Amino acid sequence: MTQPSLGSCLSSLRESTPLIHCITNYVAMNSTANVLLAAEASPAMLHATQEVAEFTQLADALSVNIGTLSPPWVEAMQLATHTADTHATPWVLDPVAVGATRYRQTVCADLLAHRPSVIRGNASEILALNGLAHQGRGVDATAATEDALAAAMALAEQHRCVVAMTGERDLVTDGHQYYTINGGHPLMPRVTTLGCALSALVAAFVAATPGKPLLATSAAVASFALAGQRAGATAAGPGSFYVAFLDAVYQLTPDDLSHFAQHEVTHAA
Amino acid sequence: MTQPSLGSCLSSLRESTPLIHCITNYVAMNSTANVLLAAEASPAMLHATQEVAEFTQLADALSVNIGTLSPPWVEAMQLATHTADTHATPWVLDPVAVGATRYRQTVCADLLAHRPSVIRGNASEILALNGLAHQGRGVDATAATEDALAAAMALAEQHRCVVAMTGERDLVTDGHQYYTINGGHPLMPRVTTLGCALSALVAAFVAATPGKPLLATSAAVASFALAGQRAGATAAGPGSFYVAFLDAVYQLTPDDLSHFAQHEVTHAA
Amino acid sequence: MTQPSLGSCLSSLRESTPLIHCITNYVAMNSTANVLLAAEASPAMLHATQEVAEFTQLADALSVNIGTLSPPWVEAMQLATHTADTHATPWVLDPVAVGATRYRQTVCADLLAHRPSVIRGNASEILALNGLAHQGRGVDATAATEDALAAAMALAEQHRCVVAMTGERDLVTDGHQYYTINGGHPLMPRVTTLGCALSALVAAFVAATPGKPLLATSAAVASFALAGQRAGATAAGPGSFYVAFLDAVYQLTPDDLSHFAQHEVTHAA
Question: Which of the residues A67, A92, A96, A211 could staple to A203 if both were Cys, CB 3.0 to 4.6 A apart?
Answer without folding.
Answer: A92
